[in-house]
Specification:
434 Repressor (Amino-terminal Domain); 6 helices
Length: 91
């Protein structure tokens, strides 16, 4: 995968999945996370759905709301299998 736009799309999707997984793992609803980070529920849903790339300030706010350093949230996103890898594994 060498197309920079595709690379970015895959990373944005992985970050959204990482946020969702951590939120669920911590027993938080989208509304609760939104309240913690001072954002609208719809915005948090859009971040989780990877509807757009987020800014660093949003990344830090969400990471703080999840109780994890931002770099660990990004690392988790890198460690998650891509949709292609998940499809190939039968998940």
């Amino acid at each position: 995968m060498s197309d920079p736009r595709e690379v970015l799309r895959v990373r944005v999707v992985a970050l959204g999945r990482a946020i969702t997984e951590l939120r669920v793992e911590r027993g938080l609803s989208v509304v609760q996370l939104a309240e913690r980070v001072g954002m609208a529920r719809a915005y948090v849903e859009a971040v989780e759905a990877a509807d757009f790339s987020i800014t660093y300030s949003v990344l830090w706010r969400v990471a703080d709301g999840l109780g994890i350093p931002a770099h660990e949230l990004v690392q988790l996103a890198y460690e998650l299998p891509s949709d292609d890898e998940r499809a190939g594994s039968g998940e």
